[in-house]
Amino acid sequence: MIHAYPNRVIVMHDSPQPAHMFRDRGYEFMTTTPDRSTVDPYAAVLLSENDRLAAMLTTADPVPTCPGWSLLQLLRHVGRGHRWAARMVATGATEALDPRQVPGGKPPEGGPEVAAQWLRDGATELLDAVAAAGPAAPVWTFTGPRPSAWWVRRRLHEATVHRADVAVALGVPFPIDPAVAADGASEWLGLLAARPAAEEPPLADGATLHLHATDDLPGAAGEWMVRGEGGRVVWEHGHGKGDAAVRGTAADLLQGLTRRIPADDDRLQVLGDAGVWTAWLERTGF
Fold first, then answer.
1. Taking the model in full, what pTM does it have?
2. Cβ neighbours of residue 29 closer than 8 Å, sequence gap 6 or more
């Protein structure tokens, strides 16, 4: 599963997807934080997706895709992660802080509704911290020092993927804007591309995997060409013939890539060498 605090150094591949895409699709920026609209184009999307997650976390049901967790434990995981990022931004951290020492790192007593509001407040706390520090202020990240607004995108996709976990647990659909899902897939590929060379890499040198979202997305935002190179993964947006190709909606590709649905799920069409796809998934867990 995707952890909020990976224990390895990673370098994020910046998605070339245009920042205005989210505004074009109707997201409105909230104004309760001064200058929030200038924080980052992902700010409104983070608030929206985090709110959808909070609204679903009202029981202690188990989460099959996060073994050993209940929905309330998942809520605590995401909410603490928001505050962890906010704390690093607020303090201008030059190294990773201990998430266990984050102030307010556990939801207060009072039941699921109180806990859900605590989750919502965590996203707001992060945006407040970025606005106060300045979106360009340097801060520690998994990728080395980066602008503080880097954390907005990171926390957005933490929330979206864990909302997929909740949907699986509750047996309900996982509605998500295709542009948000596609950007989540790009971020995930960036995490994987930053891994050091491995003895058993996700793709053998020269092997290729093509991912194709069937949604109506601008340009090449919904297509990815991934290949193995020197024991590592490299990728770019674009169309091409791969040893294996996987087609599906952006939402289903995101769930497939992050192992929220099985490799042979009917929602995914796998063409070519299916073994390339299954090996990829076996070797890309976090």
1. 0.84
2. 36, 37, 43, 44
